[in-house]
Amino acid sequence: MWVIFNNGKIRSEGQRCIRDAVGSKRDHSHLLWGGRQRCREGREADYHSDLSMRTLSTPSPALSCAPGAPGGCQNGRGSSTSSSSVAGETVALVHAPPPPPRLAHPLIRLAARPQREQARVERLPDACLVRVFSFLRTDQLCRCARVCRRWYNVAWDPRLWRAIRLAGAGLHADRALRVLTRRLCQDTPNVCLLLETVAVRGCRRLTDRGLYALAQCCPELRRLEVAGCQGISNEAVVHVVSLCPNLEHLDVSGCSKVTCISLTREASIQLSPLHGKQISIRYLDMTDCFALEDEGLHTIAAHCTRLTHLYLRRCARLTDEGLRYLVIYCSSLRELSVSDCRCISDFGLREIAKLEARLRYLSIAHCGRVTDVGIRYVARYCGKLRYLNARGCEGITDHGVEYLAKHCARLKSLDIGKCPLVSDSGLECLALNCFNLKRLSLKSCESITGRGLQIVAANCFDLQMLNVQDCDVSVEALRFVKRHCRRCVIEHSNPAFC
C-alpha cells in the first residue's frame, strides 16, 4: 500500500509498519541525517522505496532486538530512529550514524575543572597536607580549618601551632589570642605545651588581657614579639616573664608604656635560691620605649643577667649611669645599640669598653657627645669588634679612626657618615689595617676625596657596599672602585656615574 502526501513524497504502508515495530519513542536526531537525503529527486526516491520494501522481507541486523530488552535493539539506537521521508527513514534504520560526541555546556565544563583539582587535593594523605599547611600564616591556617571536617582536623594538628603570627592595626588581638589558646588547650586542658613563638606586630587592640591569657596557657613560650602594640604595660610584661620561665626572646619595641622588666613578688618567692631572681631572656629589643630611664634599666639588668643582645634605640632618657648598671650585671653582652640616645658620652663608652672582647656589635649613631676619647676606649679593649655604627658623631676625627683601625683589625662594617672631620688620612689607615672590611659608609663626609676611596679599593678587595652620597668624589674614583671591587654596590649622588 502506498500513501501520497501533499508535498508529493511517496511513502509505503510497509515502512509505517517498520516504524511501529521499532517503537513509539521519538528522537529528532535523524533530522540532520534525513535532511541530506530529502534533496535527492527522481529515481533516487524510487530506489529508496524499493530498498524499504526489501527491508521488510529481510530485516537488517540494525533492527534485531536484543533478547530480554523490550523496545530496544542491539545497538541501542533503532528504537529512537524515525523519519518523515522514505529515504531518510530507511537509510537511518539500515546504516545508523555514530552518535554525536556529548559536548558539555561551557559553563558546566568550567565548573567541573575545580572539582577535578579538588579531588586531587583530597587524595593527598594527611602528612602531605600538614606539610603544605606549615607554609601558611596563622590567619590562612584558620581559613583552611573552615573548608571541611578533614581540613579542620589537619589544620589543628599540634605540629602546625608551634608559632602564632598576627599583624594588623584593626585586628582584635585579645580575642584572637584567647580563642586560639583555648582551642590549643583542648588536648591538654588549661595548658598548651607546644606553643613556643607568638608574634603580634602593630596590633593597637592588643592589651594586657591578651598577654595575661597567653601567659596562663603557654608556660613553654620562648619567643614573644609585640612590636608596635602600644596598649601593653609593665604589668603584662612582668606577668609573662614570671609565668614563662623559658622565655629567651622579647621584642617590645614601640611599646611606649613599658619602662621596666622584672619578676612578680610571687614568682620571686617560688624561685629556688640557686636561680635567685633571674629571668632567662637573652634577646631584648626596647627600641622606641621613650619612657625608659636609668632606674628602669638598672632593674632590667639586675633581673636579666643572661642578656647577649640589647637594643635601646631612641631611648632618649638614658644616660651614662644606666650603662654603668648594665655592664655590671650583663657581662655577656655581644650586641648593644644605644643609637639616638643623646645623653650618652665618652664616659658611657668607657663603661661599655669593660665588656672587652665579648662585644662584637656596637651602635652609637647620633650620640653627639661621643668623641675620639670614647672611640679609643672601645678600640683598646674591644679588639674583636666586627660592627661599629658611629654615624652623626661629629666629634670623631682621623685620630679616632686610625686608633680604631689599628686595634680592631677584624672590623667588617663601619659607618662614619656625617663625620665632617674624617678625611683621606683616616681612610688610608683604615684601608691598610682592616683588609676584611665589607661595608663602609661615608655619607656626607665633606673632607673625603677620590684619593681616599682609591686607597680603600686597592686594599679592601672584599668590599660589598660603599656609601659615598653627598661626597665630593669624581667619576674616575668611582670607576676605580668598581674596577677593583667588582662585587661592590656603590651608593652615590654623582649623576655622571652609572
Overall average pLDDT = 80
Q: Percent of residues in helical segments?
A: 25-40%
Q: Shape from CA axes?
A: globular
- Would you count the extended β strands for me? 15
Per CATH, what is the topology of the domain at 381-498? Leucine-rich repeat, LRR (right-handed beta-alpha superhelix)
**Continuous helix count:** 20
Low-pLDDT regions = 1-98
Strand content: 5-15%
CATH superfamily (homologous) name of the domain at 381-498: Ribonuclease Inhibitor
Structural class by helix and strand composition: alpha/beta
- Give a quick account of the main beta sheet: strands, pairing sense, barrel closure: 13 strands, parallel
Second rung of CATH, namely the architecture of the domain at 381-498: Alpha-Beta Horseshoe
Gap between N and C termini: 101 Å
CATH class of the domain at 381-498: Alpha Beta
Q: Order of strands side by side in the largest beta sheet? A: 3-4-5-6-7-8-9-10-11-12-13-14-15
Radius of gyration: 43 Å
Which helices and strands occur, and which strands form pairs?
Blueprint lengths: L1 E3 L5 E3 H10 L7 H8 L5 H15 L28 H9 L11 H17 L3 H8 L4 H7 L4 H7 L7 E5 L5 H12 L12 E5 L6 H10 L5 E3 L8 H10 L5 E3 L13 H6 L12 E3 L8 H10 L5 E3 L8 H10 L5 E3 L8 H7 L8 E3 L8 H10 L5 E3 L8 H10 L5 E3 L8 H10 L5 E3 L8 H10 L5 E3 L7 H10 L4 E3 L7
Parallel strand pairs: 3-4, 4-5, 5-6, 6-7, 7-8, 8-9, 9-10, 10-11, 11-12, 12-13, 13-14, 14-15
Antiparallel strand pairs: 1-2
Helix pairs in contact: 2-4, 3-4, 9-10, 10-11, 13-14, 14-15, 15-16, 16-17, 17-18, 18-19, 19-20
